[in-house]
Input
Amino acid sequence: MGEEEEVKIVEEGKIQKIKAKLDDEIRRLMEERKKKPRFIRQQLWQFKKLDDKWRRPRGRHSKQRRHYKYRPPVPRIGYGSPKKVRGLHPSGFKERLVHNVKDLEGIDGSKEAIRIAATVGRKKREEIIAKADEMGIRVLNRVL
Output
């Protein structure tokens, strides 16, 4: 991972995203974190009106609640992410919420990325983005 990954390049209005510096173990754990089954709602395939959203099975005789093998899996503690990568953004950065330009102080651009708070207006948002680009910090919600 050389210098070219750390420096952003502006080409034809597109900004190349800054990549996180990850070692091989963290990269492997990030891939491992993705290997989870799709948790589906009980009897979702039978009823058109049911949303594709997880709901805990609560029925007294529910086969899914009782973890019968022929039923879809239920979220359990064993499906948790490895501790080292828990809470990391899929890009590999640790997220930091920013409300103003002053909040950018003390942010390590190689490990942390910023997310601008929803309550920040357009003018201040542009200032934050400009300062972050100058400092080499990735902005996760860059949309203007």
The chain has three helices and four strands. Confidence is low (pLDDT under 50) at residues 1-10.
